[in-house]
Amino acid sequence: MEDNFFIIVIALVAGFIILQLRRTLGRRDGYDGKDEKTGDHHLRERDSDAKGYKDNVISIKGEDKSKSEFQERIEDGKEIGISKSSPHYETLEKIRQYDRSFTLPDFIDGAEYAYGMILNAYWEGDLKTLRNYLSRDVHGQFEEAIADMKEKGHSFKNTIEDVEKIEIEDASIQGSMAEITLRYTSHMTIVVKDSDDNIVSGDAEHPVPVVDIWTFCRDVRRGDPNWTLVSTSNA
């Protein structure tokens, strides 16, 4: 009897830990934001001399956050992770009232993983993976683009070189339905090849700057911590 009780307790603890690990933006399958050669994460601000951050920018550097302005902003923002002076603070505070585990750094961290994972799934034509993270409309758009590429006998050979920064463009909440729009600034090598592996467009040797605007939505009253991509555009 005591053995059975011990097993039940261990199972409950394990379940709680798994739930907490998933309380970012969806699951983290696929792209992990690391350089294949060095293993370094690429989400960073390129301006290493910058002395401060905008209210709606989260910088992720290899720095001592316990002494950084970023940490001070977390404390000022009641652990939400954004300054009270930000125009988005009130909305994020409302989200946190529904989901006490929500913080902006966790959301940004999950958004980084989601960005690479979704793009790689799209480039590889993996509609099954995309279905877990996209709204019906966005999935339909991706599906049409993938079908068009296949019809032409073309394929993507793209690579995310780095993600410079992720900024909040907008945040809103109606009832318990929350939306957060992010601006991703990155560098990619963008190449399209034909069935004979010839380059149709792009340049594999020279990365280009890319700015994507993505909007994520979630019913924050529900226990499911996953956010859904409901809109995409290029700046």
Can you count the helices? 6
Number of strands: 8
What share of the residues does DSSP label as strand, in percent?
Answer: 25-35%
- Structural class of the secondary structure composition? alpha+beta
Distance between the termini: 62 Å
The domain tally reads: 1
What is the CATH C-level name? Alpha Beta
> Do you know the CATH architecture?
Roll
The third-level CATH topology is: Nuclear Transport Factor 2, Chain: A
Globally, the shape reads elongated
Helix content: 25-40%
Rg over CA atoms:
20 Å
Strand order of the largest sheet: 1-3-4-7-8
Query: What is the H/E string?
Result: HEHHHHHEEEEEEE
Unreliable spans: 4-24, 26-75
**What can be said about the biggest beta sheet?**
5 strands, antiparallel
Mean of residue pLDDT values: 77
What can you see in these coordinates?
The chain has helices at 2-21, 69-76, 89-98, 104-123, 127-131, 136-152, and strands spanning 57-58, 155-156, 159-174, 177-189, 191-193, 199-202, 208-219, 228-234. The chain is of the alpha+beta class and 235 residues long. It has a single domain (25-234), classed as Nuclear Transport Factor 2, Chain: A, CATH 3.10.450. A hairpin with a 5-residue loop joins strand 5 (191-193) and strand 6 (199-202). The longest helix has 20 residues, at 2-21. The chain starts with a helix and ends with a strand. Residues 4-24 and 26-75 have low confidence and may be disordered.
